[in-house]
Write a structure and sequence with these properties.
This protein has helices at residues 22-29, 38-47, 64-72, 82-90, 121-130, 140-148, 186-196, 213-230, 256-274, 286-289, 322-326, 424-428; strands spanning 16-17, 20-21, 33-37, 53-57, 76-79, 112-116, 133-136, 153-159, 181-182, 199-204, 236-238, 279-282, 293-305, 308-313, 332-335, 345-351, 363-364, 368-369, 372-375, 382-386, 406-411, 414-419. With 433 residues, the chain is of the alpha/beta class. α8 runs parallel beside α9. The radius of gyration is 23 Å and the shape is elongated.
Length: 433
């Protein structure tokens, strides 16, 4: 599909994030530090205004301030755990939709949908107690829910038999994926739902994270076929997520208007077939928050290993795991601590402080160390790792007993601490000798 924005171009020197000084943020809140640009999140929410419902896959970035921000933009949420249900409620979301029909004539939108392939005991208790709508990724969930919530309406997450993602590890379709109900099993699943007294009101497909629109477009036809098997009980169809984000130089934003038109046409054909309106959802995660986020980290050592030069910073894969997990590329820029930028650039590998050889931010898939062209850096300069607002902090860990970093939201040039940095006392809280 064609593109609607110019290729990504990023400077190698960066003094500010959303109008806030990088050096001041680092001095006030310490490093490593996650920083989010509120305006970028708002723009990405508004990119998807044509869809009836935008449902944020909060696993991408679940800070309460971010959830409250997307809620203010009319975005609802997906939850994949009891903890994410709790976060959504704490951010101001209602647990379930009011009965009746929405003002636009569509069925009501569920503020929170629990989406998973299983119920653990805590999540089943939570959805039953709170009346949260469930997107079932396995047939066994149907009887388990029916036992607790007789007569409930459910959504089915269906694996269409194919998938695609930026990595094989993010592919959520096909035989190699554990996710969703296999498309060929739909007749049997519908019989089980009918026997259990549950109605199927929604249909959802998601084939992978960070894929491309050409592969995502194939989902529309697959969903339309499965919708025909389910029939007139459907009131909502979801295109899932997976919208691509440009990380590397030369990558571009995709033509989302053409993508919506594809799905809208499929929706209209189903409406004609069923004789009633259908709510059309999209479920972005990465797309809403990735570009908003940066990690500020401090250069703590500069060293040579044979012919290769390394910058070692105080963030590691405990801070940002995507490079070690997937060989993911993140743009980087330098903020000189004293404001005086070097006139020269050099090829460097960037690594962290952890006792792991894989603790490298400039690596390719498979763990091979690569280099990046950056301005000549000195100890005390700040390195900014960009496009880190999705699957960043949410996958951070306490490996090597490192405290979790603080998070800051910048809105209108004003920076607000939205999560304090963990302390050594936090690390051992709950443990006993």
């Amino acid at each position: 599909m064609p593109t609607d924005r110019a290729a990504t171009e990023r400077p190698l020197i960066r003094d500010t994030i959303a109008g806030a000084s990088v050096a001041d943020l680092a001095r006030e809140h310490g490093t490593p530090l996650y920083v989010y640009d509120a305006d970028t999140i708002r723009r990405r929410c508004r990119d998807l205004a044509a869809w009836d419902t935008v449902r944020f896959a909060q696993k991408a970035c679940s800070n309460l301030a971010v959830l409250a921000l997307v809620r203010s933009e009319g975005v609802v949420v997906d939850a994949v755990s009891t903890g994410e249900i709790h976060r959504a409620l704490a951010a101001g979301y209602a647990p379930h939709a009011a009965p009746g029909t929405a003002a636009d004539g569509l069925p009501p939108v569920h503020p929170i949908v629990y989406t998973a392939d299983i119920f653990d005991r805590e999540s089943l208790d939570a959805v039953a107690k709170l009346g949260i709508h469930v997107n079932c990724g396995s047939a066994d969930m149907i009887e388990q829910l029916a036992d607790r919530v007789p007569g409930a309406a459910i959504t089915l997450r269906v694996n269409p038999g194919f998938g695609h993602g930026h990595s094989q590890k993010t592919n959520t379709g096909g035989e190699g994926s554990k996710h969703g109900i296999w498309h060929g099993d739909i007749p049997e699943v519908l019989r089980r739902a009918e026997w259990a007294g549950l109605s199927v009101s929604g249909l959802h497909m998601h084939i992978g994270s960070g894929t491309d629109l050409a592969h995502l477009a194939e989902v529309a036809g697959a969903l339309e076929r499965v919708a025909g098997e389910i029939g007139r009980s459907l009131t909502t169809i979801s295109a899932g997520g997976g919208l691509p984000v440009p990380y590397k130089p030369g990558e571009v934003h995709a033509d989302l208007s053409g993508y919506f038109q594809l799905w809208d046409a499929a929706r209209k054909r189903l409406e004609d077939r069923f004789g009633h309106r259908l709510r059309l959802e999209i479920e972005p995660g990465r797309y809403l928050t990735a570009e908003s986020g940066s990690v500020i980290t401090e250069v703590r050592a500069v060293k040579k290993q044979g012919g290769r030069k390394y910058l070692l910073v105080d963030a590691g894969f405990n801070t940002l795991a995507r490079p070690v997990l997937y060989g993911s590329y993140h743009p980087m820029s330098l903020c000189p601590r004293d404001g005086a930028a070097a006139a020269t650039t050099e090829e460097v590998a960037v690594g962290g402080p952890l006792c792991e050889s894989g603790d490298i931010f400039t690596q390719t898939d498979g763990g091979f160390v690569a280099t990046r062209s950056l301005p000549t850096a000195r100890v005390g300069d700040y390195l900014v790792i960009e496009i880190a607002g999705a699957y960043g902090f949410v996958m951070a860990s306490n490996y090597n007993s490192k405290p979790l970093p603080a998070e800051v939201l910048v809105d209108g040039g004003s920076a607000r601490l939205v999560r304090r940095r963990q302390t050594p006392e936090d690390l051992v809280r709950g443990e006993t000798v």
